Amino acid sequence: MNKKLLCAALLGGLGLAQAASAQEFDDRWYVSGSTGVNLQDHDRGTEDAIFGTVGFGKFLNPNVSLDTELNYQNAHKNINRNLWWSQYGVSVDARYHFRHADSKFWPYLRGGLGWQRHEEEFIVPLPTSPWKHKDSNAAVNLGVGMQLNLGRVNVRTEVGSRIDFDNKQARIGSQENLFTDVLASVGLTLALGPEPVAPVAPAPAAPQQTCADMDDDGDGVNNCNDKCPNSQAGQT
Fold first, then answer.
1. pLDDT tens-digit profile of 6-59?
2. Given phi > 0 = left and psi -120 to 50 = alpha, else beta, which region is 151?
3. Are strands 105-122 and 64-73 parallel, antiparallel or unpaired?
4. Nearest to 94 by CA among 120, 55, 123
5. Computed over its alpha carbons, how large is the radius of gyration of the chain?
6. Among 85, 83, 61, 62, which residue's Cα sits nearest to residue 73?
7. Which of these, 157, 146, 152, 58, lies nearest to 105 by C-alpha position?
8. Which of 130, 126, 204, 116 is nearest to 168 (CA)?
9. By Cβ atoms counted within 10 A, which residue in 32, 72, 166, 207 is the most buried?
10. What pTM value is reported for the model?
């Protein structure tokens, strides 16, 4: 009897341990937003600009999160601040977080792929000037950051670069094959849905009684070994 109770208690403990393990990270979807400074590649001929992002994502496991983000920036041209130049795009980025059980600060590495769109005005020696140029191209994101876990709301600070494979940008001088912008930002993530709760482990099943656990006539001998099953209590 005692062995069966001990086994039931051990099974219950294992169930609780598995439930806690299943909830060691918050896997809710979240929305995100950030703002910062885009330090433009000098070869662009543009000034540094403020940029913003919005997106959504989730943690795939305790260390890896995946985000989709939209970005936008509108920089002035060095040659003429009245000429329009804007850039916007979308990216998919993975972040690997170096998490510690007792710390709310999670340093991370970021890497991702994106697609950037450029729209700009440029001067030509014609009466129809300025002309407009539009083009799209691939981009690669790399970065490092720190995430502060506050529960439903997390804070992110990040420094990184975007390698922009734009080889058709209208500019004066030789044409570049790519541009590398440096981006520094601070942002927030907001988890959606109710707070996660650890699943309740099922109660251990009551052990099945056998004849060894029963004594119908109350004579102190279990039913399996009782050769006189109808004797009176206390009778030899």
1. 344 444 444 433 333 344 788 999 999 999 999 999 888 889 999 999 999 999
2. left
3. unpaired
4. 55
5. 33
6. 85
7. 146
8. 116
9. 166
10. 0.69
Q: Are 87 and 137 in contact (CB under 8 A)?
A: no
Length of the chain: 236
Q: Each residue of 82-127: pLDDT tens digit?
A: 888 899 999 999 999 998 878 899 999 999 999 999 888 777 777 7
CA atoms within 13 A on the CB side of 51: 25
Distance CA 214, CA 85 (A): 89
E strands, the chain, are: 30-39, 49-59, 64-73, 85-97, 105-122, 131-149, 153-164, 179-191
User: What does the block give as tokens for 153?
Assistant: 């709301």
